[in-house]
Specification:
By secondary structure, the chain is mainly β. The protein contains eleven helices and 61 strands.
Length: 976
Amino acid sequence: MPSSYVEDPAPGHGSAAPRAAFRSDAPALSLNGEWRFLLSPTIGTAPEGIERDDFDDRHWDGIPVPGHWQLNGHGSPAYTNVRYPFPVDPPHVPSDNPTGDHRLVFDLPDDWADQPAVLRFDGIDSCGRVWLNGTELGVTKGSRLPAEFDVGPLLRPRGNLLAVRVHQWSAGSYLEDQDMWWLSGIFRDVTLLACPAGGVRDYTIDAGYDHLTARGTLRLDADSGVRLSVPELAIHDLPAGQTAEVADVEPWSAEEPRLYDGEVHTDTERVPVRIGFRTVTVEDGQLKVNGRRIVFRGVNRHEFHPESGRVVPREFAVADIELMKRHNVNAVRTSHYPPDPAFLDLCDTYGLWVIDENDLETHGFSELGWQGNPSDDPRWADAYVDRMRRMVERDKNHPSVVLWSLGNEAGTGRNLAAAAEWAHRRDPTRPLHYEGDSDCSYTDVYSRMYADHDEVDRIGQGIAGPERVRELPFILCEFGHAMGNGPGGLLEYRDLFERHPRCQGGFVWEWLDHGLARHDAEGRAHFAYGGDFGEPLHDGNFVIDGVVHPDRTPSPALTEFAKVFEPVRITAVDGALRVTSHYDIASTAHLDFSWTLEEEGIEIAHGPLTVPPLAAGATADLPLPELPATGAESWLTVRAALAADTSWAPAGHVVARGQSPVAPKPDPAASAAPAALFGAVDPDVTETELRLGPGEFDRATGQLTSLGALVVEGPRLDLWRAPTDNDRGFEDPDEARWRAAGLHRAQHRLVGVELLGDALVVRTRVAPAGHGFGMRADYHWSADRQRLRLRLDVEPEGTWPCTLPRLGLRMTLPGALGGAEWFGRGPGEAYADSRQAARIGRFTSTVDALQTPYVFPQENGNRIDLRWLRLTSPDGAGLRVDGETAFAFTARRWTSEQLDAATHTTDLEPGETIVLNLDLAQNGLGSASCGPGVLPRYRLHPDRASLTLTFTPLDPDPDPDPDSDLNLDAEETPAP
């Protein structure tokens, strides 16, 4: 056959009709393992005759199947977000089309009967031509969709030769521009499945639920002679085509994933099935499951592993789902293709709502004004319907799948409409989603991505969008772009989802950073992104945008998500506790409640809290527990935790937490003036030095040079932070404004140093070169014998053109002060618009552990609302900082400028000192890397401000604990 099939828009040929993915008691043989492999640079240079038994492949390499050849020493990965990495000339692809030939010789098991069989490929990227024992079976396209070939008559007991020619580019590549690494090969399972005569060819189970009567209906559609049995429901041998009614059935939901074990069977084959009863409807402008409005607290999930790409071992899929459940994620959109079928089995079992998305995206045509888009080109009509058909037939029996999605960012056109029409006809039990159908002419829910808070509010009020969409449920199929440090603003989205019944949540973009594991020239591990493999066209680190790092370590964004979207809300109202259930379906009967009272971060009392089981959406007001008196700032924390082990977390796992103040921090200003508090001492002045209490200053500059035995530099005003990915956002980014204003190169000018009674006053002006605006910064120092007090007064001058990255102080300390303890919010990082997960308490960490290792280095590690901070060496010597008002801190072994210059974590070399920032505030985070920027209330504008801190040098402990600075806060904190 000529290679014209590669550029044929048709979906391929030779494969059997699509059907459900299932395993039975019929024989099956996995063909996964090491295959022989040869990569040729073009189709024309690929060898002829690879399908022949006598072809010599001894000089070929081995390659794992499933696998991508670019991750196994052949070629290189490439990443683009929108643009195609080849000339856009559909359906043509480059002549330089890498072609990977795969060969496997296998034997049948001794007990394999002479019977029909199919050869199943669960995923080949992007086009595969298949032969078995010299006979061509056909061609498959649709990389993340299954293809089965009838092979029974071709099999032989020994020495079966399976040959597959895989092309990196094909006409199908135009439909697979899905914001991910371009990776090729046979990357999902290959299986030989026996199909006994008179067995189960295919089946569809329709298990509906009537929430008014609590009755279920069960129907099996299959060939004549196929039957369904569900012993637990006393259903035995229900024939295909008949419906059974079941009284008092327990329905399936993401919160209570009740499954009934059964069998679809004939006399020659038995298929185990797990059945979930549920009904999905769109009514009253809302998406409902079992009669209840649901809210998607979801994530978008690409399939990815940092070493094997889209080959994701089952244990990692399990780890993903368990991590989601532990962080209050209740839904997954399978962006932007159907996942490995085993993942949906897990969603059924663990309980997740799923939007199952078709393997379709043509986003690169947006760069051409959608000219030539296959979505409206009749040559591609069969491919569009074929892809939808293969997904729906494969996944139709999963109760977790509540919506089908036509695909993503493929414009609009007749082929999408045709795929929608087919899906509606084939499966009227599930609504249809597609964000690109902006007027919902062929879809059932209104979907947007990255709509800002104001637009969501207007949609919820029914005053935005075309007339038809105002009557439909609204979801954000993508929001909260989690690229680097962020997103900010999740809380405000949650409030809108709760305010407007039609606004039914959304899916954060996205679950996982797609960083590929690499080592630099010195052998240091890091994660790679676009451009790291020499691609001429790439989109950099835009592929690093998940709430989980590539090694599946949760980022602070996931912890924030867990707190914002916790299913139980606990607040203090008028001297009582209010507990509100935000479950959609389940009650709170599976939770235990407890309380803890802490005085300045130290627990002094605790106990259980009796909360009656609350139905979904219900509220209970409870009296406060009896609390002992406290003499310092005290906080009451109430936690809701699992009462028993579940499949995804042990008993005691905290799913929600509320905190309220019991006794405020004493106000020093209420009892005495600051100078009187200090018992001030007078400065001791020489020609070169000035001593004030425990501090020594340079007489000429007024700069602090030592504090007790500590050699220090600073503190002085700091306005700069290493920009985050969201600071570097798409439209009119904050970073561009900050750099244009010169904030990254601000200069400090000394205005004067003077002694005013017992105080040292240092007056400065901080401003960037080339501009007339600036910031007055006056440092007012006073002291007693043990402590040094600083009041920083700042006042902007001139017309400032932008917000400030930060406003605070920077100083350097000896590198030995590697232990941190603080009373304030923690244990993790927090920012103005991403702070819900941080609770008030006393926390310890090492300075090194304070860092968040974002794949692309940027501002991180900020701890907020501090009352005091201690930085110490192992012997206890160090520094204590107290704030008269709350402050924030970061501590690192590199400067903000070094952090700003780094592009990978290996660029950050620890220095000999610790750089300490003590901040009044930082600008918020937003999600402008792809979405709205910082909300107005979280923007840091230049204004008059003061920050007052007290510095106390600490002497060594008499009996030091050598591990004291390694005592990390041990509490698991998805939401506590």
